[in-house]
Amino acid sequence: MIPLKKALLISHSEQNANSLSDLLRDENYTQISVSCTSADAKRLADKDEFDLICINAPLAAESGIELSAYFAKTTHSCVVIIVPQKNADDVNDALTEHGVLVIAKPINKHLFHHFLQFTECFKMRMLSVEKENEKLRHMVEDIKIINRAKLLLISCLNMSEEQAHRYLEKQAMDLRTSKLNVAKQVIRTYEN
Prior knowledge:
This protein is an alpha/beta fold. Helices cover 61% and strands 16% of the residues. A 5-stranded parallel beta sheet has the order 2-1-3-4-5, with helices on both faces. Helix 6 (161-175) packs across helix 7. The longest helix is centred in the C-terminal third of the chain and has 49 residues, at 109-157. It starts with a strand and ends with a helix.
């Protein structure tokens, strides 16, 4: 079963929006929200999560560059901006650091397909890195709690650091729980 893919398409031209919607449907985007202004697009992105945010630049009141950077910073969506060929290099220079993919007009359907595949691969890689970072953050927090418990054992019970370490490990083994749970109990016991 193909997963549902959601796209937010921002274009000031209804005709271009219809053509791009057709291309996105060909790429299995089944839920496509269309907006013609950046304010409306931001409102939609605040309410919902999209797999892809596609900006057909320029917009009526802006270039779309700032909006692309905004979405790249504030969402987990793949962000693509479609610009006239003559501006593509400059826009690419401005948006590469933000992780926004720049596609030049006119759009080649075959290349568009590969660009979207690339953005999905990039998104999966970023989500993997983000997940690993979250895991490491939790490990660091756990180490801080264990070290705080050791410090309490050292200061309140006059243990050495090695004794405090062994105490936490032995209690965890004896109680068949984690060292973190033992450390939390030590903190509850010895902190005011």
